[in-house]
Amino acid sequence: MDISIVIPLYNEDESLPELTTWIAKVMREHGFSYEILFVDDGSTDGSWAVIEELKKEFDAVKAIKFRRNYGKSAALNVAFAAAEGEVIITMDADLQDSPDEIPELFRRIKEEKFDLISGWKKKRYDPVTKTIPTKLFNAATRRMSGIQLNDFNCGLKAYRKDVVKTIEVYGEMHRYIPVIAKWAGFKNIGEQVVEHRARKYGVTKFGLSRFINGFLDLLSIFFVGKFGKRPMHFFGSLGVLSFLIGTFMAIWLIAVKLYHISMNTPYKRDVTDQPLFYIALVAIIVGSQLFLTGFVAELVTRAAPERNHYLIEKEIL
Question: What is the pTM of this model?
Fold first, then answer.
């Protein structure tokens, strides 16, 4: 199979028929073998009923329905596991992504040997309250990851099959899939300017809280990607540094007192009466705790076996 088109959705019943018809038209014109994999993320409208009707008309339609809303990352993770195409295309269900972009994305993955192509909605139809924070997050992500993309969170992306079968997307990490892919060893990441269409039906499902969550997720990815396999390098380094600083301060206090004793000069305060002594004591204790944390973290796998277990209510496969 050439292409798997992955479409996570939440309450998008109005747009699904038009989107499916458009995708089928593009696929037919270019002679692709394909599947359309919808993931209904616990919709409360008639989205699943619409998908069931679409299945009767389009054999390529497959679908998974969550019992409740887990989020876009969960939907993508489950869809990636089920996808069978050589190239996986992800796109949003709200018709703001154009299926006409698919052939070029497919060509670049197959012919130019990219691991991942991320869309760049250079001209956007979003309000300023959304575009300005998005630019800030993209700039921060570029700085921390070293990946020179302009739009990390664009829903329209193309992947080699090996990429989606290797990476794990959880929490709200879908915003930083290129970063996850890079840490997994897939470094041939490209970008393509794509059309951003104004929303035709419904309203956006994302609020301002996603920017706070996005920043926390970025820090999490950076830490896990850099130190996930070697936590002792992080905690141990901080622990040793804190321990040495505390030890040095304690030795300094003791040495000063011994010097005064040897010179038979008056010593104004005992060591235990000085604030520096307690700072040194805290630094030694904190350093020991950080070192032990790093040691224990080395013994514990970071991935809990049930972290990506989701309740699937129905499937069309």
Answer: 0.70
